[in-house]
């Protein structure tokens, strides 16, 4: 390709290809989505953390503080009842309250483990509990049962002051826990609002990115491809002079340039093809004239050439009958040679005519019952079959679209050869089989004769090729060449089975519908009449 034939290159445009644009767009989209995803993940994590703290720490801590207060009230009621009455039954709620107090304090310590201020409030509550226990509760509980405890009256004012201090510490703790819970709820609501706003923003950005990608694809890929497709359709419609303007990314512009280069090359090729078509038309006319000359030759061979040959044959036969035995032995031998040569020349000319007519004269395709055709062939060969004592069998044969005359010639040549080339002193056996082989029919003609050497399996299908002298086996060497031409005319192939050693096996295929056109050139009326007169096939 020379320099002026290269596809044109657009100048002043970006050198980025579609892949580069796609990579850049995808990378930018991924960066934006990654940032938004990270922020969204942080917001989700923050929301979950605040929610967990509210559900697992703040609310349970406040509830436990209320339960601690209830346990202390049970203790105070029990101690006061025991101190007034001395009845041991009042010690039961006191002791149960102590157990609940210890459990609730331990639970609060676990819940408030990371909150120093809340733990400070809990410490004050524990100190207030210890003060009240030491000054009031334990001494009264240690008094003997059965009678009111004198400490009840003595320490009533002190006990009331200590328990009020304890309740004040509890109230302070509960107020802090309520404040912390309210703050956690506010933080959770704010975080959820931020989360919702962020997700709405992410959704909007995704929609915006999708719109940008769609528009970029439309402008950078779809629109240039549509323009390129329109230009290509215009060229496909026959407007080969229509130019292709390169647009879009670098690779699409390069593709447009290459297609335009192909268009210009097609224009040159079409011009060359038109010139070649004109030359081909001229050659076709020459070929038609050549076919006409061949038909004329067939006419001459069937009439003008055979007429003097018939005279030579007739008069030499007359000489043989009239003067046979009257001349010397040499003269009789010469006359015999002349008669035999004339007969063989006439047979050879007829065989050549039959060979040239295959595919030109006998080309009327119709449904042919190959089994009936074979039966008619065996009837025509009945004399040769009876003389040889041949046994001929066959499988059921199909009906194909073929030329009936050529099918008769095919069977007669194959069966005739199988009978002729038999082993000396034996009765020949011939079997014809047929089987479907894909889209074709596969036929075999098997005999137990002298066979064919592997090196001659191709040679026997060449015209005039003989493997034996005419003294050993009669014939012109055209029979199998004619079979090959008939089979190929009907869309098949013919070969010799090289693996069969007990005689010869000819294998050929035929198509159910002949693929060749039957529109052969018409022959002259004289040649058509001669074809009808000599339509009976002969053994080769």
What would your notes on this structure say?
The chain is an alpha+beta fold. 66% of the residues lie in helices and 7% in strands. The protein contains 13 helices and 7 strands. The protein has helices at 18-85, 91-111, 116-142, 150-154, 156-236, 250-304, 306-323, 329-357, 370-380, 382-388, 404-420, 479-489, 525-533, and strands at residues 366-369, 391-394, 399-402, 429-437, 440-447, 494-496, 504-510. Helix 7 (306-323) runs antiparallel to helix 8 (329-357). The longest helix is centred in the middle third of the chain and has 81 residues, at 156-236. The chain is elongated.
Strand content: 5-15%
**Which geometry do the CA atoms define?**
elongated
- Structural class of the helices, strands and pairings? alpha+beta
DSSP strand tally: 7
- Measured between the Cα atoms of the first and last residue, the distance is 59 Å
Strand/helix succession: HHHHHHHHEHHEEHEEHEEH
Radius of gyration: 59 Å
Number of helices: 13
In terms of per-residue confidence, which ranges show pLDDT below 50 for 5 or more consecutive residues?
1-13, 516-540
Summarize this structure briefly:
The protein is of the alpha+beta class and 540 residues long.
Topology, pairings included?
Layout: H1 18-85, H2 91-111, H3 116-142, H4 150-154, H5 156-236, H6 250-304, H7 306-323, H8 329-357, E1 366-369, H9 370-380, H10 382-388, E2 391-394, E3 399-402, H11 404-420, E4 429-437, E5 440-447, H12 479-489, E6 494-496, E7 504-510, H13 525-533
Parallel strand pairs: 2-4
Antiparallel strand pairs: 1-3, 4-5, 5-7, 6-7
Helix pairs in contact: 1-2, 1-3, 1-5, 2-3, 3-5, 5-6, 7-8, 9-11, 11-12
